[in-house]
Amino acid sequence: MKRFLGFFLVCLFLTALLMPTLPALAEVKPDPSGALTGTASDVVGATAGAPTADDMKKLATNEPLAAKLADVVGHNRIAINVVWTLVTGFLVMFMQAGFAMAETGFTRAKNASHTMAMNFMVYGLGMLGYWVCGYALQMGGVGGGTLGSGLALLNNEFTIHLFGKDFGLFGLKGFFLSGSTYDAAIFTLFLFQMVFMDTTATIPTGAMAERWTFKSFVIYSFFISAIVYPLYANWVWGGGWLSQLGHNFGLGHGTLDFAGSSVVHMTGGVAALARAMVLGPRIGKFNEDGTPNAIPGHHIPMALVGCFILAFGWFGFNAGSTLAGTDLRIGVIATNTMLASAAGAFSAMLYMWFKYGKPDVSMMANGLLAALVAITAPCAFVNSVSAVIIGFVAGLILCWSVFFVERTLKIDDPVGAISVHGVNGAWGLLALGLFADGTYGDGLNGVSGTVRGLFYGGGTQFAAQCVGVLTNFVFVFVAMYVFFKVLDVITPLRVSREAEIEGLDLPEVSVPAYPDFQKVHYE
Fold this sequence. Notes:
By secondary structure, the chain is mainly α. It has helices at residues 2-18, 53-62, 64-105, 112-139, 184-207, 214-237, 245-249, 261-279, 300-319, 330-356, 361-376, 384-408, 417-435, 459-490, 497-502, 505-509; strands at residues 157-162, 165-171. It has one domain: Ammonium transporter fold (Orthogonal Bundle).
């Protein structure tokens, strides 16, 4: 652990020393204050019927006051987008509290401080890893966006040339947010993308709760935030090869994932699967014949409140992914998100009620989350009826998957993270390829025309979504499985048997969550 931290600090120092020496691009200069961001050029083409470039040239010559007014309008347009992106990013950051409460409530009291500590520190650890290199790998070649001309400074994508096509693999601008990337628009995008990454990083903590060492958790947090998440996110959101399947091979608009069903949730769920397989089940979870034992969570009301916080933050998650308060599709996105969540909770409740005679509170909560995960990719591209169908199916998939993971795969997942995020993340990506109704998305990933799924005549879009699902599973699972295996050799992933039986609060984080009624032993 000391060697790892020493290596990290040396890299931090050297990169910080070297990065400011990089020259800024001549055509676009960084604007740290934001005062110069947003001009008349941001009015041109902003909406149907907006002035053209020629119109603006004539205006500047004949009506200088009107041209200045156009500059103000352009600046305000960008300002609205920046404020919208920041506020929705703050909502997503608050989801960290929801994850902490949900995971802690669904696990046992003797591990509550340990589970809370992981959810607390993954925020800071993940952020630092993402700041060092994750953001650059993900967005370093994105080359533009709705937050101002400064995003054009993120213009260096590492690509390989195969079959006469360019395949983007990762970005190379934005390390430490230094040098020519010291810009208001780039910093704004960093905050928003960082909280999305942190959602991915926190998902596996629930699946591994009650049995893994805090030391290995720290190393994991840096690895997923700095390497694994950014690479797949680049392929879908940063201009990488999956986003160009439409341009290169005619597969719709390439792999689309509006707000992260696969980029965020499936990545976290697949990482949780890999870790749970390496780590093994909790003591007492399975009998000798392989049958599972229920290990109830200690605070279901806490878990449900956490799920409500997540549902609230999800409005920022999905609607915020427009990165534009000037995009009025945000109303459709938010309503689709809300409707899907209700349908998922409802279908999970019905399934458990009919199959086992009583509704299951934890399944209702996870059904709601599963539906939110599923609607995250298609929320901008579908109508309300499709949103309800997607959410309803997600609740059923959640129930089937939980029992399959536990009873067939013999994998111990205390909070259902693999099923909620991994399985339903895949369903969300496929659902976009099925239900996109052709009312939104013209020009996405450089492809003209709106987005249509299989049910609306867009079979190639569904093919692109299938490629995205397969790529995510193979890449993330292999990368995380190998990482955990290697890490287990360097430092044990699992706590001792004695610590697991006693509870991890004292052995791992020094402080019991409930000292007034827990039986604890102080040295």
